[in-house]
Amino acid sequence: MKILFASANYGGRIVGGAQLSIQLVAEQLIAEGHEVGVLFVDPNGAAYEVAENGVHLFRVHPNNIHWHLDSRKTKLRRAAWHIIDRFGGAMRNDCRSVIEKFRPDVLHSNVLGGLSTAVWLAARDRGVPIVHTVHDYYLICANSGMRSSRGNCDRQCRACRVISSKNRLESRYVDAVVYVSKHMQRAHEAAGLFREGVVVEEIIGSFRRASPPRRPERSGTLRIGFLGRVAPDKGVDRLIREINRVNSVSATLVVGGLGDPDYIRRLQSLASPGRAEFLGRVSPDEFFDSIDVLVVPSLWNEPAARVVYEAGLSSVPVVVSKRGGLPQLVSDGLRGWLYEPDVEGDLASTIDELANDWDHALLKADRWKQIEHEFSPEFITAKTLAVYQRVIAEVGTPT
C-alpha cells in the first residue's frame, strides 16, 4: 500500500507529539513493506528527498504571508495569516502536485494549521480516500486551542463558528476520522464536523523507549518533573505555587522544556530557594529516569498529552489535571492521580498523599505495564492499517 501522510510540521522540524507519532508509524509501515510519503510545509530544503528511514519527503512552500513557525509575527499579520490559511486555498495546487507525483492509495492528514483543508480538496481532485487524525482544535477554533483570555471554551463561540465554516463544509470529504481522545470526539461532534456515517476510530499514539526505564531510588527529596512547552496555559506557575505549599515531604521541581525567557524568569522568582531547576531542552528518556513523579498541570483542555503515556511507560507515577483528554489517559485515576487545577491546595494535597504512600504510587505506575503493547508502533500501525483497509474497501482506490 502507498500511504501519504500530510502534516504541517515534519522533517527536521518535528515540534510536537503528533509529528513524532507519524514518524514512528511511518517507519513501522515501511518495515512491513508499505511505501510511505510525508507532505509537509517548510520554506527550506529540497522539494523532494528520501530520508534515511526510507520515507519520501515532500516539502511545499508556505503560500502565506509568513511561515506558521515564524516567531516574528504581529497581531495584524497573525490575523491575516489565519484568513489566508482558512479561506485562501493557496496550498491546493502544491498538494495536488505531490499527490499526482506519489500516487498514494490513501491520504492521512494530521496537523493542518499552515497546510489547511486544501490538502483534502487536492486528494478529492484525484479520487484519493482521506483519513484524518484530530490532534488539535484547528478545525473548530481560530487559535486551535479552544481557549481565550477568559479561560477554556466549553463550546464554539460565534466568531469561531464563522471562521471554521469552510472547515465544517469540507470535512464531509473525509472518509475516516481518528480521534486521540474521547474529549476530542465530543468537541468536534458538537461542532458539527464530519459527515454522518463517517468511519470513526480512536488511536492515541505510539511510543517506544530507546532503552529500558531505570526507576531511581527515592531519596529524602521528592523530585517532581514537568516536561513540555513552558507557558501559562500549561499551568507551570500554579505548579510552582502548589509545590511551595507541600510540607509533608521535601520536594523540588525539575522543569524540562523551552518557553518565553521572561515567563521563565518569572517562574524562577516564584519558586522557593532551591526548589526549582530549569533544564531547557532535554532527552525525555533521561528526564524520566531522573524524576520520582511527573505532573501535567495543564489549564487548557489538552487533547491527549503524549508526555503522560511516555512517563507512565517509563515507570514514573503521573499526576494530571482534570482537563481535556488527560483523565482518560490515566484511566480516571487507575494509572495515576487527578486534581482540580482551579482549587488552591488540591495538587499539594495530592502530592502529599502519594509521597506518604509510595508503595501505592508505584502500584499505580506499574499498571501501565498491562497496556504497554497498546502503545507499541506495531499495535498502533495495525489499527491504522485497519482504518485504511476499511476506507479503501468502501471508497475504492484512485484510478
Explain this structure to me?
It is a single chain. The chain is an alpha/beta fold and 399 residues long. It folds into two domains: 2-206 and 376-395, Rossmann fold; 221-371, 3-Layer(aba) Sandwich (Rossmann fold). Helices cover 36% and strands 18% of the residues. It has 15 helices and 16 strands. The chain has an eight-stranded mixed β-sheet with strand order 3-4-2-1-5-6-9-10, sandwiched between helices. The chain has a six-stranded parallel β-sheet with strand order 13-12-11-14-15-16, with helices on both faces. β1 (2-6), α1 (17-31) and β2 (35-41) form a beta-alpha-beta unit. α8 (236-245) crosses α13 (346-355). The longest helix has 19 residues, at 377-395. It is globular and about 65 Å long. The model has no long low-confidence stretch (mean pLDDT 91).
How does CATH name the architecture of the largest domain? 3-Layer(aba) Sandwich
Major sheet description: 8 strands, mixed
- Kindly estimate the percentage of residues that lie in beta strands according to DSSP: 15-25%
Helix content: 25-40%
Number of strands: 16
The total of helices stands at 15
The fold-level CATH name of the largest domain is Rossmann fold
Notable characteristics:
2 domains; 36% helix; Rossmann fold; single chain; 399 residues; alpha/beta; 8-stranded mixed sheet; 16 strands; 15 helices; 6-stranded parallel sheet; 18% strand; globular
